[in-house]
Amino acid sequence: MTNKAADAAAVKKDVRRTDISKRSIIVNKLGIYIVVAILLVVGLIIKQGDYVSIDNLRSILSAVALTGICCAGLAFVVYSANFNDMSLPMTIALSGMMAVQLIPFGIVVSVLGGLAAGTLVGVVNGVLIGKFRANPIIWTLAFNLVLSGIVRVAWGGSQIYPDVVAGDSPAALAAAEQFTSFARTYFLNGSLPLMVVVMIVLFVVAYILLTRTKFGNQLKIVGSNYEVAKLSGINTSKTIILAYVFCSFCAAVTGIFYASQTKIGAYSNGEGYDFSCLTAVLLGGMMLSGGKGTIVGVFGGVLVVGMLNNIMTLIGIPTFQQYLVTGLVFLFVVWLNTNSERKLGRA
Amino acid sequence: METTKKVKLNAGFINDYRAYIFLAAVLVAGLFANNFYTVFNFTSIFNSSALYTFIGIGFTLCMIAGHMDLSVGYMATLGAIMVLGMHTLSGLPWAVSFIIAIGVGALFGLFNGVLVAKAKIHSFIATLGTQFVIKGIMNIYCNGAEISVKGDYGLTDAMAVTVPVLPFSVYFLITLATVVIFAVVLSKTRFGRNVYILGGNLETAWLAGIKSDKNTIVIFMLSGIVCGFGGALYAVYTGTATPTLGEKGIAPLMVALTATIIGGTDINGGKGSVVNTFISILAIVAMFSVMTTIVGKFEMQILFIGIALAFCVIYETLSKYNKQKTIGLRPNLYNEYKKETGRQRI
After folding, report:
1. Is A145 on the interface with B (CB under 8 A)?
2. Would the N or C end of chain B have less CB density within 10 A of its end CB?
3. Beta-carbon neighbour count of residue A230 at 10 Å?
4. Given an 8 Å threshold on Cβ–Cβ distance, is A139 in contact with B130?
């Protein structure tokens, strides 16, 4: 009798909320766009009207596009609970160099070759990590080193230039011209670069893949709980392989645009991309423990990273101080990320 | 349990002595290289292995405890910059400069440790961020420029003095002493045992009453200290320090990682030895020396060290994958299967 009364009292006292309010969902999903708005205001205060001028917006978007294309892919790897793809830098470099090297065979072969080389990296990563459960960080670090060795040995440690590779034949020179014009193509009276269009297309593809397909649903379960996914009959290795392949495909696209923009194929092309892309993805609300986050959020994260860099350059913060700020921002974001996971009782 | 033991029986010897086998293979390959077996060459191998050894010790220590410290390379660079900055730019005596360099290393180790132990951030993610913080601070301090000892070569010369008979310089002897100290600390002290237990099973460690947070912070601090000290010694030995140390060519971090994994340290922690890491670093540096004579291309070194690392990771992964397959199988059924098909694996 008394026990039951005590139980009833305990039940009454328990006022923990189990429902999730609509407002918190919106803040969670679109919180990053509040930061975007704040940065926009900060930019306006610093630069007055110039900040929202077409020129500056275009420069932000162009600067963001390369990171953004890469992030659309990396989001899948983070989502599948594999933390980070440390072989991004060399994937970018390899696909760029491959594309430049194949220019004499025509522009189509060049682009397809670059994409294929990058995607192959994803296949190897995916098989090793998805099928054989290698440690994702150590394997991708090791494979990055192998790729760096291959690229340096194959090209003798030197840089290659599209117009030099093309040689004397007019067809190849035209292809080289076309290749370097990729990053310099603009739509809508020069306000919308091709890179930004590609980035948006890839983000839309990523959004559809993640939310509207069987693969996306399976990836969510694989990312949230690998064992459960396996026991419920999901082909986990196939899912993770697909995630890595998409990541490397996006990295290959980045590599081709990078080589096209700088007119150079070099082994140092993608340096630092593993770090900056992870920052953007985590800023966008992807959880390191996997299975949580949205592509819309990641897009916001990419914008924030781009605007932050832009504002730092506008204020005139030197490169070295920028390293410090990026590092601290990264750590702060990761701390926030981990902290919210701990509140949910995970990690 | 029975089945898993039988599967990995013959692989056990290779797994435990991988570093020594690698070293033996390199020494055999050295027979075909000109001037490999000379005192001068061995002195240079020992001297160039010193920086990697310090970084490798820090990395192995963290990995035994189940963490990854990706900031070790920058930590060493910071130590190099600090010691010469304090001595040359600020005019402090060597002893004080060394203490400051080590102290700064310890400070960033503490920073890493707090991020990992208290904020519960994955160690490789946390140290990936710390890398950039260190890079920024270091470059702000030295303004991105090289610092040299500026004519004060007393200590540099003293470190290059070789011991009679053996091809050991004072620099290498200090390295050797550090390896011995860390090997003894890891195998003979309570702290060392705690490191292994923390890496092997965090829950067991907690139940055994080990203060995991405190020990993790100490481990990261030790890693910072040993890397700062190694970087400082390297800077004094070479007479210069640049903030891009190791960015051109092979990053010291990758050498440390390769050596740690070849040395048999478990990726998930709980197993490993500083001595094995040291032996594999010697083997890697000797391999560089052999390859310089035979192939003569710097790029080939990167490819070979990469292939060695990838091979080891694949080997570990596959053996773990096969082990996982036999877990939960009934031993008698497994034995029948083996008898019928003659195959070891399923």
Report:
1. yes
2. N
3. 14
4. no
